[in-house]
Amino acid sequence: MEILRIEHLSKIYGSGDTAVKALDDVSFSVEKGQFVAIIGPSGSGKSTLLHLLGGVDRPSSGKLFVDQTDIYNLNEDKLAIFRRRQIGLIYQFYNLIPVLNVEENITLPLLLDHQKVVPDFLNEIVTSLSLQDRLGHLPNQLSGGQQQRVSIGRALINNPAIVLADEPTGNLDSKNSEEIMTLLRLFNKKYNQTLIVITHDERIALQADRIITIADGRIAKDEVIRR
Fold it and tell me: What torsion do the CA atoms of 34, 92, 179, 145 make, to the nearest 10 degrees?
């Protein structure tokens, strides 16, 4: 089942002689439960694409459907609600709230949405992330790997349609990087969670079901990995 469809997506920054086309007529779709890696050199348009997929920025032209909803046809308030409920974002630098403990950081999307926390699901997530003994800790009391686990839990707590990860292991050593990718693959398989990862790391990309290569704002290659 198709969970994401992009139609002729373009993004231009600036105007006139200073205009920069960061994304140029990009189209593709993603099936539910698919793990997609998006790769390409710096400045190729990967981050712009991620921001558009996550509803953080609006395109200059084109359409983007998430679970059959044309998200850029929504006004800002409805888009914010949709993004909070249907898009899970994982960043390289964690973006945790320093004054909130682990449990509060993970459940923040639910609280912002005035939704009740389901204790069994929360427990399942924190146990899978090996955070059950850290729920009362603040971010500065955690290692980098543990902070990234918290950000994964926060992205998953709403059971979103899509999880987007922007260089999720870029700030971690090789051991923690491997553990984080193992966890992301676990949730991808266990919950049939659609996962889109932007990465410079070829080893991470080769773990995906599909690799999309972006160059000069366009799709240069789109290949399914056969195992």
Answer: -150
Burial profile 162-188: b = 16 or more Cβ within 10 angstroms, e = fewer = bbbbbbbbebbeeebbebbbebbeebb
Angle between helices 119-128 and 144-156 (to 10 degrees): 150
The span from the CA of 157 to the CA of 74, in Å, is 23
Q: Distance between CA atoms of 64 and 182, rounded to whole angstroms?
A: 29
Q: What is the rounded radius of gyration, in angstroms, for the C-alpha atoms of the chain?
A: 17
Q: What was the pLDDT predicted at 227?
A: 65
Distances (CA, A) of 155 to 51, 116, 119: 15, 16, 16
- Spell out, as residue ranges, where the chain has pLDDT lower than 70: 227
pTM reported for the whole predicted model: 0.90
